[in-house]
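hiii so my PI (J.) wants the whole complex modelled not just the main chain, which honestly fair. so below is everything: two entries, each one labled with what it is. i double checked the lines twice but i was tired so who knows lol
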Amino acid sequence: MSEEIVGRRSFLKALAAGVSATVGLRLVSRASASESGESSPHRWGMVIDQTKCIGCGYCTLACRATNDVSPNISWNRVIEAGKYAGEPVYLPRPCMHCEHAPCVEVCPVQATYHRPDGIVMMDYDRCIGCRYCEIACPYGARAFNWEAFEGPNPEVPRWGEPEVERRPRGVVEKCTFCYQRIDRGLELGLEPGKDSQATPACVVACPTKARVFGDLNNPESGASQLLERYPAYRLREDLGTGPRVYYLPTRNEEVAG
Amino acid sequence: MRAWGRVVKLNRFHVWVTVLAAVVLAGAVAGIVVFTRGLVVTNLTDLVPWGLWITIDLSAIAMSAGAFLLCAAVYLLDLKRYQPIARTATFIGLIGYSMAVLTLLLDIGRPDRFWHPMVFWNPHSVLWEITMCVTLYLTVLALESAPILGSAAWFEDRWPRVAATLQRIHHYAPYLAIAGLGLSLLHQSSLGAAYGVLKARPIWYRPDLSVLFIVSAMAGGPALTVLASMLAGRLSTRVYINDALLEKVSGFIGWVLMAYLYLRFWDMLSMTYTYSPGRTEGLRLLTQGPLSFNFWVGEIILGILVPMVVLLRPSLRRVPVLRMIALLMIIGGVAAYRWDTNLAGQLIVLTYLPQEIVARYTDYVPSLIETLAGAGVIAYGFLAFTLGARYLNVVDHQVQAEAHGLPQLATSAAD
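here's the output for the full assembly
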């Protein structure tokens, strides 16, 4: 009997030690990760001028070509959002890169996370494909790879090739603000939003310059300037997600520039 | 006469097992199709990414709640005479959670990465917490069930030392019961919270869902345990049950149903006031729309009201057939609640355009492959319980109390 009690005690001790060691290690590693996590001077954002958008959908195509997105998926959709003075009004919808992103909160494996510069990123090697982020996103910005995307991408022109790897079947994907263009541009000393090589493909491709990209931390950036001059709104602000994509509602006057 | 009866029973058992095995096989084939071709073979979409499999997953976990409740009653509240029922419930729990794991493996896009939540933690995510709890609790259930295997006569004969080791785990039953209680209270509620925390889905976004999920599980879990015990006692000559004990548990389930009905009444009533985009449409979907039959008949009338009356009135619940029908209705009602909750939030698609928020409707019907794979998982559960009842004595209200040195049953049921 006494043997059993000793056995039980040592079992519980070992269990407690094991659990606390695991938790402790995890917490330590998390803490060090957040300490060493570099901060960024930038906070990328996008301003979309609905007066200028003509609904041509070039942004969607440029996005597909640059990011090798399947024809079944749109990281960036252009939606007809009613009429103004008899003319249709369009609303292009990339990922909002929310400051308080519901997808980041719910992902069980941190496969979607915030970069220090505010971009909501996807780690396609970590995603388990549970699709909870899709359920949580109020903007329908996320798409699941229900099947493998094989063969040539019809949107990729013969003279170029996509800048990022194609996603495998079974993971969720979404707009990344073309982080690869931003990162490479910054390395080359370019300014995202100003220099086309360092700017998201949708912004570069827009024939009416309806999209302006830039650093919201920099008051001189094109995006900050527009937000200073015009009243802007964001989608579903009532949800408190803090989107980093702003919209300038349709106006009568023509915007200079 | 007796020999003839045995032959007939044997045949019936074989037919039952063969049918279940065939469905499991069909499910396995469907599963292979899912793994090779991907989730494109389902009718799930980016608008409705969670469907039949999530419902089976949630229901299997809810129906497993008998394990933590009865283990807590026996080992923490010292209600020792329920020990044999706790044993059955534990085994059902082990089956239920393994069903949930199987369904999840089907459902996630990258089943090869099932272990990621163990390594890449997001403690902020309700789903992460659920995954951790389910994994840990599955371990607890395996440990709690180990003595069942260890005390099976054929196992003891073949591997006496292993059997002795497995039986020794029973000494830790009180600690396992504490762990099981904690883990279950956490994730049974969090399964509701997984829906309840999403602000983007107004019909879900409320704290009540976590409470409703655990309370409904506290009715559905023991209901399945009692029903399975009664069925086993009826269909097999080898199974001995103490009906008085099962009747007591059924009375308890009746009271849980009353609490569940009370909570649901106020939960629903509070949502009917003032128009709220998405929530009002969701409510309409449930009470008047395509889910209304499920809701009124499946969840409320047959799922709560009728069985509540049957189980709370001793004269009614003493009639075994009535009690079994009532228990079956509860199980159906709890599963219907999971199905309806899951869909009500997804079939309503809210606009994010700057004008007034508009709710649009979408729909979802599971595909053949989804249905077959789901049926396979359920048949696996039935099969595992059938084999357990036959070869592991998981339903046995007489032998166990002696085997574990617990006091003999005071009432020896009349034969």
